[in-house]
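Justification of resources, computational component.

The compute hours requested in this renewal are based largely on the per-chain cost of generating structure records like the one below. Each record pairs the submitted sequence with a full structure-token output. That output is archived, and it is also reused by downstream analysis tasks.
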Amino acid sequence: MQTNLYRGFELFVLFILLPISFLLDYHVVFKIMPTILGFIYILFILKREGLLKLKLPDKSYWKPFWKETVIKLAIIVIITGLYVFFVAPDKLFSVLIKRPELWVMILFIYTFLSVWPQEIIYRTFFYERYEGLIPNKWLFVFINAILFSLAHLFLGSFLVQLLTFIGGLLFAYTYQKTKSTTLVSVEHAIYGNWLFTVGMGEMLAFPGTE
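The structure output for this chain reads:
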């Protein structure tokens, strides 16, 4: 049985040391390889614990999930829509209008190749391995959001750090209530795809319209 000391060290290496190491100036191969090995390690642990199976949540979770998600999305739509309108009006829905084929492609790639791995790592694995280390659930949600934001540090954008921290709070809260990778992935995909759609793609390291 692995000790709390081992899990604490594991958390430090995977979720603090590795993301910070991306800021160092060395060959990209030496950044990609540890990331791949870390992801394989995480998948191995989840497979061993039987947590990689596609499992739909209980029907009782869906109605309150959609109700909360629609409310949160409405708030996000208003705030981000106004932000793009005043800060970069030329970007407002620009990809959707000018390059709809790119818009569809990004939505697909982001949903299946970005959202799912992130939620597997930062919610499913993180909660499975470390929830027992921190009894206070709200502190745990906060730490999860901080580390989720830290994973995006290499992009060098304060806006990205802020949005991923807020997103981390929302996703951790949803996962804590439901313990469902499916639900939190759906929520993550909805918010992320909206940000790209409204015109914040280039601000958040997505391809632009040029």
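The mean pLDDT is 91. The longest helix spans residues 100-130.
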